[in-house]
Amino acid sequence: MLYMLDTNICIYLIKRRSDELLERMRVFRTGEIVVSVVTVAELQYGVSKSENKERNQAALESFLLPLEIANFSFEETVVYGNVRAELERRGQTIGPLDTMIAAHALSLDVPLVTNNTREFERVKGLRVEDWTK
């Protein structure tokens, strides 16, 4: 695996909001892009609260089909605890699910692809890339 996608990038791709982003994704083979199970949970929440659940569920499943979904294991919980404590010490907290996603990318030693760079750049050691620009 080479990259982890953040929730907002997944939404961009599902809704086809960026031709450049879609083109960039085409160069990767199956298994080179990973999505955290935390991101999948966030996306599933979006489907559950949407008005067109069936269509959105089908779109989500189709999007996830070629991607590797990374489970959140004990190793990631240790990294999460350290990241969250460090952010709190510095007074630079981010949302709890974003903290989990950041910890997951750190634990797997992969860059996180997001257009929310301002928030994720607070996490020391996390490599962040914005493919929407």
Automatic annotation (TrEMBL):
Residues 1-121 form the PIN domain. It is an enzyme of class 3 (hydrolase). It comes from the Bacteria. Keywords: Hydrolase, Magnesium, Metal-binding, Nuclease, Toxin, Toxin-antitoxin system. GO terms for molecular function: hydrolase activity; magnesium ion binding; RNA nuclease activity; toxin activity. Its EC number is 3.1.-.-. Gene3D superfamilies: 5'-nuclease. Pfam families: PIN (PF01850). Its cofactor is Mg(2+). Mg(2+) binds at D6, D98. InterPro entries: PIN-like_dom_sf, PIN_dom, Type_II_TA_system_RNase, VapC_family. PANTHER family: RIBONUCLEASE VAPC2 (PTHR33653). Toxic component of a toxin-antitoxin (TA) system. An RNase. Belongs to the PINc/VapC protein family. This is Ribonuclease VapC. It comes from Sulfoacidibacillus ferrooxidans. The gene is vapC2.
